[in-house]
Design a protein that fits this description.
Elements lengths: L2 E5 L3 H12 L3 H4 L10 E7 L2 E10 L3 E9 L8 H15 L4 E7 L3 H9 L3 E3 L4 E7 L2
Parallel strand pairs: 4-5
Antiparallel strand pairs: 1-2, 2-3, 3-4, 5-7, 6-7
Length: 135
Amino acid sequence: MSYTISICANNSEISELQNYYSSFSNSMTNNLNFNFSEGKYYKVLLDDKLIGFASVVDEDYSFVDLKRYIDPEHRNKGVSGALLEFIIQDAKTLNKTRLTGSFLGDNENVVNFFISKGFKVATGKTFSMVILSLK
């Protein structure tokens, strides 16, 4: 499968992500909260169909608050890894020194995913933090 990953360039693309995301139930989204009015957004297409996206907040030297959502039908197929690699390359191009995010709980699959991508993970009962140094 070949995915097309790109940076959302305008408000209509971000509105498309918002509409797409709102079509899923809370149990399917793990209650992720995206602030579609701020941040930098990336989208993943498969045969011109939206199947996932991610967001970060661009701060001086870091991308923070990494969040991602992949359609349940396309999970565990390498989409998240390809999307994350795209974001990491974008961060490096912009001379960012760090990429951070958090997620609820201590989901072992999520923890292992981020560790496999080189992130340091600090798990907790309520939420866990992930940090990748880009130096």
